[in-house]
Amino acid sequence: MGPTGVGKSTFINKFCGENVVAVSDLMESCTQQIAFTTRTLADDHPLWPGHRLVLVDTPGFDDTYLPDHEILRRISVWLARVYDNDTMITGLVYLHNITQKRMLGSTRTNYEMFQKLCGANAMSRVVMATTHWDMVQSSADSQRAGEVREDELKNFWAEILSHGAQIMRVQAPEQDTHNIVESILENHAKQVVTKIQQELVDMGLSIPETEAGQHLRYTLQEYLDLHKKLRPDGDPEIREKEEQLKKLNVDNSFFSRVKDLFRLKKGGKNLQVYPTKSSHN
């Protein structure tokens, strides 16, 4: 996971040693759907010989074409469906571009949404990986600048790191992607359930009710409160944010389109999950 253009698809391709997911070098985002590829670990793998490994690529919350509420829906639905199908997540990799000189609003939103989706219990299964080190290694000065940014990121990521997340670099992509995945596989037995999975499947909440949904609503409202006074009436970006906020506040089809996918398995019976409050209807 991570912002658009940070190298999520490239990470998977480098790990696999071939282009299995699309990559774009343009300013526009490339991954809009949840994409995954499956690999079988080698028969001589020291921990999990012959086991299946599934690598999942997700769109960022600053996608070129899709609004943030739709990104939230797609990621949430995928996570809930695999959990409801008794498939557990072994680990999560969050990527950040080390060349970024300051924390942009979209970058902050991506990270904060990632926190809300994961929850504290899953943070010990997270690797915070910095990418694009090749762009800061051309000289000793630029290398030092990257290291300074890495130290700043440690402060910005203090909460998630305090819950056991690791911080690693993608400097030599072919090797480092394997190192990151192997660091996760070493603790394979510590599979966890993310916060959004618990909220949607175990608690039966709607997506707007989840912590991630509430945070996105707050972020959109904060943006509107700040920019409405500065931008002319009819500004297309303002209208887009207002429409997203409407989806979270009013349009319950945001959840009803997916609620039939989730079932709880209790006492040997499959129970349908519906919104827990009558105001959702």
Automatic annotation (TrEMBL):
Lineage: Eukaryota, Fungi, Dikarya, Basidiomycota, Agaricomycotina
Highest taxon of source: Eukaryota
UniProt organism field: Candolleomyces eurysporus
Alphabetical list of InterPro entries matching this protein: GTP-bd (IPR006073), P-loop_NTPase (IPR027417)
Protein name: G domain-containing protein
Pfam families the UniProt entry points to: MMR_HSR1
Domain G: 1-65
GO MF annotation terms: GTP binding
